[in-house]
Amino acid sequence: ELGIRIPRPLGHGPSRFIPEKETIQVGNEDSTMHTLFADSFATLGRLDNVTLVMVFHPQYLESFLKTQHYLLQMDGPLPLHYRHYIGIMAAARHQCSYLVNLHVNDFLHVGGDPKWLNGLENAPQKLQNLGELNKMLAHRPWLITKEHIEQLLKTEENSWSLAELIHAVVLLTHYHSLASFTFGCGISPEIDCEGGHTFRPPSVSNYCICDITNGYHGVDEIHASPTGSIPSTESVCEVEALMEKMKQLQECRDEEEASQEEMATRFEREKRESMFVYSSEDEESAATRDVSRHFEDTSYGYKDFSRHGMHVPTFRVQDYSWEDHGYSLVNRLYPDVGQLLDEKFHIAYNLTYNTMAMHKDVDTSMLRRAIWNYIHCMFGIRYDDYDYGEINQLLDRSFKVYIKTVVCTPEKTTKRMYDSFWRQFEHSEKVHVNLLLVEARMQAELLYALRAITRYMT
Description:
The protein has 458 residues and is an all-alpha fold. The protein has 2 domains: 31-197, Up-down Bundle (AhpD-like), CATH 1.20.1290; 240-279 and 294-457, no CATH class. It has 20 helices and 6 strands. A hairpin with a 2-residue loop joins strand 4 (355-356) and strand 5 (359-360). It catalyses: a hydroperoxide + L-cysteinyl-[protein] = S-hydroxy-L-cysteinyl-[protein] + an alcohol.
């Protein structure tokens, strides 16, 4: 009546992929979750939708929030406004306007210069120099060499110190992988964010006004989720078949072990095959103007590492691993961060409730390892003691398409991809898959960057 425009949420709930009624409702959470919500609110000044989806796995969320808080707000080599600006640069590489907008607000809140937000060319030269590393880490980390590190550390008045560079690398990898989580779980913008609201009143064409007053929001909720629907025989069979394969693989493992040569061949085969996994919805998505100004070279994107006769040597984990090399380098140059990252990797990798869809008391370690190693395989990273033949047995094509999209080109993830894999599994299990994707991706990027730093130092 007063002519005031009232914002209304565009979506329902924190995720476009998970029906609101199946997420954990604020007010119904247990005491552990309540504490996490309070921590998240105190740290971020809001209860964001990432937290509301991650809380399916409280143990992981606690570790994630602790790490993110340390990277953004605790003592460290980089000033606060630099940290948020690097977050913007990293999220922008995947056109993740959700994360970009959050950090634009934080950047201004800690006193960042608004002019920098007009485009990367307005930021200090030191940050502009980070653009090349940001681009390669996000899309082709296997191309990073010690020369790239040297350029950043040796450019006279705009040079980075080793400690600053480690901080920047951890922030870049954190936000590349968080963009994967954001797109992989279909995170919706909050009502006060760009894209999170509309000023139009709800359309009344689809339902009567009494529905609105009863909190029914119309069309979106009519489509039951695949996981919430009545189990179809086909998808129940899918779970049974997967469990049967796990059992058979375990029996084969116990009976015989493949030779080193055979293991190497299987890795190469899987690496080659991963190049031919792409979605039918694979169209070029042009970077949106408001986000693309935060990075250079908008045409640079993911390319499989063995394309067009390029041969990238395999990264062998026994020559350079997170546990033996990366962890100590990070901890030495940016104390406590190595420890926080290590804990987060371990929680994601080992997290299990011993369930698979409707089955209880299941050992899922074989499946978790296949997912983790498949992601590292796509990045050219090989574990000598792993039989890559298991991946094809355990991960079907629709699942591989989803994994590759979320990890390599997250901005192309669709609800159809999310719905089409593991149709009988709970949403919490699909979110768990995304945690594995996020952490395996982050560790892969870190391994390439830290190895280059180590080579530069030696």
